[in-house]
C-alpha cells in the first residue's frame, strides 16, 4: 500500500483525495502515540521553555511563508486573466477569429502549469518526518501525541512510493489545485444565472419545442450512445490487460452524461459578433442552456443507480426506474425552487421601496439570485437547474420592478462575473493538465471517447431534426443541422462535473480524457467556426431586432404562428394574472380577476399598475400575436379578431386568447369556408 501523506492543513476533497476518503463521511479520530527522539536536557524546565519558544517562532514563520505562497498562487491566476484580457483586446482590434478568448486562456494556463510542474522545485523541509504505522483504513483526521502535546493532522491525499522525495513539490502543486466545490459554489452560479438572465425570450420561445427535444431527449440519447461505445472500449481494454482498476457500465454512462454537456461559448460568441441567423442562434443557445441542467441531473441519477442486494453494477429494472424517478424529482424540485426564489424576489421588490436605494436593491437582487444555488444544493437538489430558472424568472418578472439604474447594474454585474468566471475556469483547465497529480491517460479510452462524442452528437442532432421537421413550418435546414453538429463543444460544465470526484481509478481516467476533449473541441471546432459558416452558406449580418423588416406580411404571420403551442397556452394567463401579481406591468388585477376577488385584487395591485393599464400588450405578445389579428382589452374584456371576422361571427369574441390561436391554426380551412374573401 502506498504511503499516506499527512500535513497540518485544511481537509481537501476531489482532486487531492485518496480513493477511500469519500467513503469516510465521519471524522475518524485516531489517537497515535508517537515516540520521538530524546533531546538532551528535555527534563530541564528552562530548556523546555526555550524549545517551546523556538517552536512558536518556527510556527509563525511557517504560517507567514504559507500566506505568501497562497498570495502568489492567487496572483498567478490574476495575471493569467489580465494577460488573457489584453490578448483578447489585441485579437478584437485585429479582427482575428481563429482563436477565441477561452482558447487563449487555456493556452496561458498550459504554459503556467508547465512552468510550475517542471520549472520550479521547492527544497525539502528538514523538519519533515516519515513514520510508518499499520492501519486498516485512511482516517480523515489524525491526533498525534508528541511529548504530551496533541497535534491535529488532516488527510490531504495518497502519495505514491516514488514521490516520497518530492513531497514539497507535490505540496506546491496541491496549493494551486482548487477544491472542486469552489467551481460549483462560486464559479458556476454566475455563469448559469447569466445564461438565464440574458435569455432572448422572443426567439427562445418560438423554438421552445425543438429546444426541449434537443436538450432533454437529445442529451439522453447522447449519454446512452457514448456510454455504450465506451463500455465496448472498456471491455476491449480488459481483454488486452490495459485496465488497472474497476470500470463498470455505470461509470461509462456517467462519462456519457459528463461529456454530453455542451458549452458552445466560443461558437456563440462568434455568432453574436457576426450576427448569424437568429433561428440558428436560438436553437444552439437554448439547447446549450438547458443541456447543462439536464446533464448534471442525469449524472446525479446515474450515480444514484444501485441494484438491490449487491454492488455488481448489473442491470436491474427496479434500480433503473428508481434512477428515472430521481431524475424527475431532482429536476422538478430544482425548477420549482429556482422559480420560487424569483417570485419571492419579485414580491420583495414590488411591495417595498427599495428602488429608491439602488445600491440596496442591486445587493438584494444579487444575494437572492446566488442563494438559489446554495439553497438547492443544501436541500439535495441541483443548484445549476435552480439558478438557471431563477435567472429566467428574474428576467421575466423581477426585472420589471427594478429601477432603471438597477436594471443596468444587474445586467452589467452578472455579465462581468460570467466573463471572469468563464475565463478563470478555462485558464484553470490548462493549468490542471500539469498540476493534477493523478492523471490516467489511456490511448484506447481516449480514441474511443473522441469517436463516441461525435457519434453521440450525430445521434442527437440528425434523427431529432428529421422528426422535428415533420411538425415545423420553418424547417431546420441541413446546413443548420451540420452547424449544430459542429458546434457541440465541451467546456466548463463538463470539466466541473469531471473534476468533482476523482477518487477512483475510473473517475481519474474520465477526468483526464475530458480535459483532452475540451482542449480539442475548443481549439479546433471553436477556431473553425467562421470557416464552417462560410462553407455551409449560413447568412450573417442579421439584426435580430429588425429581422422582419422587408419580409412579406404573410411570411411574418407564418413565423409568429410557429411559436411553441405550449407557450401560447399559458401566455394569456401569465399576462392577465401573473405579470400584474408579481410586477408593476400588465393590466390591474381589479380588471382581470372576478368581482368577488375585488379586495384581494386591490391589495395585490400596485399604484404603478393603474398608471400602466393603457399598455395592453407587453414584449412577449410579439411572440404569439399576428399584427391586426387579435386586440386585447380589459375590464369588460373580450378577445376580438379582425373586423371582418368579428362582424361575421360575434360569438367568437368571448373565447380565450389561446383558444383563438388554436382555432385559427388548426381549422383555418373552416374559417376560409365561412368567411368569404372580400375581394
From TrEMBL:
Superkingdom of source: Eukaryota
Signal peptide range: 1-42
Example of a GO MF term: sodium:proton antiporter activity
Start and end residues of each Cation/H+ exchanger transmembrane domain: 84-534
Major subcellular location class: membrane
GO cellular component, one term: plasma membrane
Transmembrane region(s): 74-91, 103-120, 182-199, 211-231, 326-348, 368-392, 413-434, 446-468, 480-499, 505-526
Similarity comment: family membership: Belongs to the monovalent cation:proton antiporter 1 (CPA1) transporter (TC 2.A.36) family.
Descriptive protein name: Sodium/hydrogen exchanger
Localization per record: Cell membrane; Recycling endosome membrane
Organism of this sequence: Cebus imitator (Panamanian white-faced capuchin)
A biological process term (GO) from this entry: sodium ion import across plasma membrane
Keyword tags: Antiport, Cell membrane, Endosome, Ion transport, Membrane, Signal, Sodium, Sodium transport, Transmembrane, Transmembrane helix, Transport
Bilayer topology: Multi-pass membrane protein
